[in-house]
């Protein structure tokens, strides 16, 4: 199905966190691929269902297959289930392995975009015009660019979009902008989005992801009580809705997405239907522990 690459320009604005959040809230089957050539941290940040995730099962185990000729059907076999049910593919141990992967990115990108029944959210980290994994943008159906409402993040993001515009404008169906900003930074976020996107008509404003320190610990091995009620989840649901709508309008995704009612994200009904820990119907208030939010918007 679709390949959605989540990138940043500079300064750790929250690309990895946003990739995980969007995949968790995605209305259909999703896989998060840790495709940051500088080294992945998804396997370090998330737990597996029965202990730590295996760092060797993921991109590292997929590489030999990619050298021999990869078919998209092989991809799920190299993914793992994180605690909470999200499918994830751990990435490279560090930048030292990036050289070995460099010639294989085209093969990998092709496969990620055609995994049967699953949309792939690839955390591609920081990308520039000479990145070894630039093809992960070229072959993507959507590129989601994450930034913060600071002057330096806006300037770097804007410059990077301009440097990459031939690729983004010509080859990608949707270039979505996501600003990670605190609740009391609405004015700064608005100005930042304007600064990044003005005049770039090929970009789409996907909105703001809440800067939510309390909730984000669920992606750092911490405990979150009723994560579906957090500002992080509610803001993420809005971004997911706009992204899904944009891809459906571009003809990338078929069908109409289930409307996400942000205001009802914390309703009892929504909570009861959340498949936490692979147990549909399990109530969120009994899901204390190292849980990962999983489609809490439904
Ligand atoms: N929505 C958010 N609310 C609160 N904190 C956040 C949010 N998003 C990211 N952070 C925090 O910001 C830091 C960087 O986040 P993250 O690792 O997702 O960024 P990144 O862009 O992937 O960075 P890098 O380029 O180093 O991989 C982390 O401490 C993370 O917890
Ligand atoms: Mg990252």
CATH architecture: 3-Layer(aba) Sandwich
End-to-end Cα distance, whole Å, is: 21 Å
Provide the CATH topology.
Answer: Rossmann fold
Uncertain stretches of 5 or more adjacent residues: 260-291
Largest sheet: 8 strands, mixed
Judging from the principal axes of the Cα atoms, what is the shape? globular
Overall number of structural domains: 1
Residues in helix, %: 25-40%
Q: What is the CATH top level name?
A: Alpha Beta
Number of helices: 12
The largest sheet has its strands arranged as 5-6-2-7-1-8-9-10
The ordered H/E elements are EHEHEEHEEHHEHEHHEHEHHH
Q: Overall mean pLDDT score?
A: 87
Give the strand tally. Answer: 10
Write out the CATH superfamily name: P-loop containing nucleotide triphosphate hydrolases
Radius of gyration: 18 Å
Which small-molecule ligands are present, each listed once? adenosine-5'-triphosphate, magnesium ion
- Structural class by helix and strand composition: alpha/beta
What fraction strand? 15-25%
Features:
Rossmann fold; alpha/beta; 298 residues; binds adenosine-5'-triphosphate; 12 helices; globular; 8-stranded mixed beta sheet; two-stranded antiparallel ribbon; binds magnesium ion
Structure summary:
By secondary structure, the protein is α/β, with parallel strands linked by helices.
Task: Give a written overview of the molecule.
The chain has 298 residues and is an alpha/beta fold. It has a single domain (3-286), classed as Rossmann fold (3-Layer(aba) Sandwich), CATH 3.40.50.300. 34% of the residues lie in helices and 17% in strands. The chain contains 12 helices and 10 strands. It has an 8-stranded mixed β-sheet, with helices on both faces. The protein has a two-stranded antiparallel ribbon with strand order 3-4. Helix 1 (15-25) packs across helix 11 (231-249) and helix 7 (151-163) runs parallel beside helix 9. The chain is globular. Residues 260-291 have low confidence and may be disordered. The structure holds adenosine-5'-triphosphate and magnesium ion.
């Amino acid at each position: 199905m679709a390949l959605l690459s989540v990138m940043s320009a500079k300064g750790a604005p929250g690309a990895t966190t946003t990739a995980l959040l969007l995949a968790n809230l995605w209305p259909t089957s999703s896989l998060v691929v840790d495709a940051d050539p500088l080294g992945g941290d998804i396997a370090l940040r998330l737990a597996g269902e029965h202990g730590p995730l295996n760092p060797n099962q993921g991109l590292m185990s997929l590489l030999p297959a990619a050298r021999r000729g990869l078919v998209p059907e092989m991809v799920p076999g190299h993914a793992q289930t994180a605690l909470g049910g999200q499918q994830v593919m751990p990435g490279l141990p560090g930048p030292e392995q990036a050289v070995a992967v460099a010639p294989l990115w085209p093969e990998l990108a092709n496969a990620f975009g055609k995994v049967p029944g699953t949309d792939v959210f690839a955390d591609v980290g920081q990308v520039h015009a000479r990145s070894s994994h630039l093809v992960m943008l070229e072959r993507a159906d959507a590129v989601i660019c994450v930034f913060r409402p600071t002057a330096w993040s806006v300037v770097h993001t804007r410059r990077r979009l301009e440097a990459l515009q031939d690729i983004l404008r010509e080859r990608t169906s949707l270039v979505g902008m996501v600003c990670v900003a605190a609740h009391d930074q609405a004015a700064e976020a608005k100005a930042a989005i304007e600064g990044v996107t003005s005049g770039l008509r090929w970009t789409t404003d996907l909105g703001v992801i809440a800067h939510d320190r309390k909730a984000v610990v669920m992606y750092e091995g911490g405990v979150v009580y009723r994560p579906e009620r957090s500002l992080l989840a509610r803001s993420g649901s809005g971004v997911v809705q706009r992204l899904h709508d944009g891809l459906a309008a571009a003809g990338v995704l078929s069908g109409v997405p289930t409307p996400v009612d942000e205001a009802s994200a914390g309703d009892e009904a929504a909570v009861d239907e959340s498949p936490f820990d692979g147990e549909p119907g399990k109530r969120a208030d009994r899901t204390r522990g190292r849980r990962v939010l999983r489609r809490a918007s439904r």
